[in-house]
Amino acid sequence: MAMEAASTGKKERRSGILQRTDVRAGWGLLTPAGIVILAVTIFPIIYSLFMSFNNIQLTTNGFQFTFTGLQNYKDVYSAPLFWHSVGFTIYYSVITVAVELFFGLLIALAIQNVERLKSISIIVMLIPWALITVISAQMWGYIYNGVYGVLNAILQGLHIIHTQVNWLGQPFTAVVSLMIADIWKTTPFVVIILLSGLQMIPKDYYEAALIDGANAWQSFWNVTFPQLRGSIALAGLFRILQAFGIFDLPFVLTQGGPGTTTTSLAMLGEETLFTNLHFGLGAAVAISTVILILGACLIFLSAFRGMVGEEAQ
Amino acid sequence: MTKPLSKRILGYVVLIAFLIAILLPFYWMFVSSFEPNTDISSYPPAYFPKHWTFQHYAEAFGQFHFGRYILNSVIVAVISTFIVLAFSSMAGFAIARLPVKGKRPMLIFLLIISVFPPLVVITPLYMLLRDVGWLDSYQALIIPYTAFNLPFAIWILRNYFLQVPGALFEAAKIDGSSVFTAFWRIFLPLTTPGLFTAAVFTFVACWTEFFMALVFNPSNTMRTIPVGIALFSGQYTVPYGTIFAGSVVSIVPIVLLVIIFRKWIVSGLTQGAVKG
Questions:
Q1: Which band of pLDDT confidence, cut at 50, 70 and 90, is reported for residue A127?
Q2: How far apart are CA A277 and CA A57, in angstroms?
Q3: For residue A8, pLDDT beyond 70
Q4: Span A74-312: which CATH code?
């Protein structure tokens, strides 16, 4: 080392200084983003964890903390409503995402097979993606309205129903109505991801399948689907993560009702925190939600690894 | 290679059905925003309005505060987007091109951060904002929106900076320019597509965010569009005409954005999927 440094002399030292200024500049450039992320995400996450072990009261002197250990968690886990919203959030997410992946694949394949309408389809699909969820919720609320909603008019016109239905007023139809509104808004996102996956499949694979005498169905199962599994899994992961946080749609459409049927975890957390002002309990709900989400991610990723195998690594 | 006719026909049928399914609710909202109240709440509804009126638009922007909601949303989204672009391009450049340690952990850390739901940070932030008296202010939204959009923007821009040949950086240094000059004069202009992508994604995320806006800025003059529309309700009935008039106006910028930036949006979604 020493001999090498001596033999190259000046040049070596100069690049060492340059190297060091580069390192310093690097940290300098990382600092603003780092500070904001630490202050607004990392610090609050740790603070939430701390809050969840305390009973917190809002007094005239501000917030008063009393350490209560695991009491908040005991209270949360013994509340039937918590388990109800865990169940609702899970089955809601799994069903909507599964339906979205099915329709998404169908539509991506359709776009792949047509020559016109492609760019207009992209524009039309991106509008729901960029649409404020609250607006889509009001729009669907009007469509589902039990008194003057257009859905009743259409279904009565087709003689599928005979009397007007209050879609958001009964548990089963309320859940399905929420799911449809959600699927309407987020399927386009899935389509775009799957479409780009489809476009990356080499054309010769299909030609080889054609030469081997495969029909359309066989070439789908043996070429398209295996090649697309990575994109499907990633679109699914993104959507599951989003769906787990569902809040805007039930907040406007059902307010968590009828009763508590459509109370998601995020809605339960928000209610505990800001309607009932139980900050400690709310923090325990929030931390439990995070654990659930991280768990879901791990399950999904390990399933994904098993499905895609080594080639995705 | 042209596709067989049967496949193409099937493709068109599925695609057109899908496009109609997407557009119909919009048509319904658009049409209702021009109908007088008696027509909006009549059953069965008319599929094409019999009477047209601008009454709801006048109400939304005269009597009610939709103009203010839109202004609030624009201020918050535009300022957040600029801060995100500044901070994320700096950080993305450092991760892509400078010899800092721990790049991999940093990138993985950013991914994990973006998985956390807002629910877990919202209470501590609320308490903090309350203590410093920043509830119902623009910074109450700009700061968290910046933080939540930085991870994706840093990832995207890092990928773009990696595509610029590293030799350019060495050449700039030999010419005696500082790291910052090389970043500002050489790298940033070459990554404009990445900046557009990051900008559109941040803007849309800020424009549509509801949860934090609801909790941090509930007062009527500080509401953003989603909060204004969610909390807008009449005494006995939901005033759909006024809500839809405000909604139609606030969809216009999004439609323009999508038409102008669709290439970058698609590339952002795709990159997120491939590399994320």
A1: very high
A2: 8
A3: no
A4: 1.10.3720.10
B29 to A139: CB separation less than 8 angstroms, yes or no: yes
Would residue B2 count as lying in a domain? no
Chain centre to alpha carbon of residue B30: 22
The answer to whether residue B148 is domain-embedded is yes
Beta carbons of B244 and A138 less than 8 Å apart: yes
Closest B-chain CA to A241:
B115
Residues of chain B contacting A289 with CB distance shorter than 8 Å:
117, 119-120
Q: CATH code at B204? A: 1.10.3720.10
- Structural domain including B194 reads 32-42+52-275
* Residues A54 and A280: beta-carbon distance below 8 Å: yes
Distances (CA, A) of A23 to A28, A215, B89, B179, B183: 9, 58, 17, 10, 14
- Per-residue pLDDT tens over the stretch A261-295: 999 999 999 999 888 888 999 999 999 998 988 88
Residue B99's SS3 state is coil
Q: Looking only at Cα atoms, what is the longest distance across chain B?
A: 76
Q: Which of residues 7-26 of A touch B (CB under 8 A)?
A: 18-19, 21-23, 25-26
Q: Is residue B4 part of a domain?
A: no
**Annotated domain spans of chain A:** 2-51, 74-312
Share of chain A above pLDDT 90, in %: 48
B46, closest residue in chain A (CA to CA): A150
Contacts of residue B127 in chain A, CB cutoff 8 Å?
A: 63, 279
Q: Do A132 and B225 touch (CB under 8 A)?
A: yes
Domains contained in chain B, number: 1
CB of A85 closer than 8 Å to CB of A263: yes
Query: Residue B104: which residues within 8 A CB-CB, separation 6 or more?
Result: none
Query: What share of chain B in percent tops pLDDT 70?
Result: 96
Q: How far apart are CA B207 and CA B210, in angstroms?
A: 9
What tens digit of pLDDT does each residue of A49-78 get? 999 999 888 777 778 888 888 999 999 999
